[in-house]
Amino acid sequence: MRSYDQYCSVAKALDVVGDRWTLLVVRELLLQGGSRYTDLLNGMPGISTNLLGDRLKQLEAKGLVRREQAPPPVATTLYHLTDVGRELEPVVRELVRFGARYMADPTSDDEQFRGHWLALPVSELLDDTDPDGPPAVIETRTGDRPVFIELAGGQVRTTLTAPREADLVLAGAAQLVLGVLTGQLELPLARELGLETEGSTAPLKRLRYDGPRATGIDTAITKEIPA
């Protein structure tokens, strides 16, 4: 890793996490917790196995990642963020907020998606407007795995395991699911474009989007996703 050779805290931080893929390693460990090497590799489509190994070694050397030899029946190496590594969570969340405005229009036909990536924008950018309302669960089925959104006590949290049977299921392309959750895409249009729903849509009315609006999201999604 090349250094900027600047006596500046921003430059010092970038010396540690500024290389390509490094913050995405942090993203995966924030989302998945203790992760196997194969979990990380699957969560970052496009990275080579050698490059992932190099990034993990660099993060270990800087004290951001630690490895653990898990006992049977797991019996494999698990990677975790250290306390120092977890200090990057607010940075990643601010990047989620900043990048949300660009989510309407993919930059290429080759862009890939993993279901668990939805957890960060949902937990960071959505609020529950009915703190006195009954607990509700929305299940999203997009990408390779479902994400469960829990609304309770005015809080929105996400989990990768089902807390109970969902009140509403949203299934379809990630753009459609995210557009409906954030209120930037009307549900009837999303259904016309292929979104499938099961259950009551009442929980959607409780969600408030607290992030930058993706300019022209209706037009962009209609263009990108064939009806």
UniProtKB/TrEMBL annotation:
Recorded GO MF terms: DNA binding
Keywords, comma-separated and alphabetical: DNA-binding, Transcription, Transcription regulation
Entry keyword annotation includes Transcription regulation: yes
Highest taxon above the source species: Bacteria
InterPro entries given in the database record: HTH_HxlR, WH-like_DNA-bd_sf, WH_DNA-bd_sf
Entry annotated with the keyword DNA-binding: yes
Ranges where the HTH hxlR-type domain occurs: 8-107
Protein's UniProt name: Transcriptional regulator
Lineage of the organism: Bacteria, Bacillati, Actinomycetota, Actinomycetes, Propionibacteriales
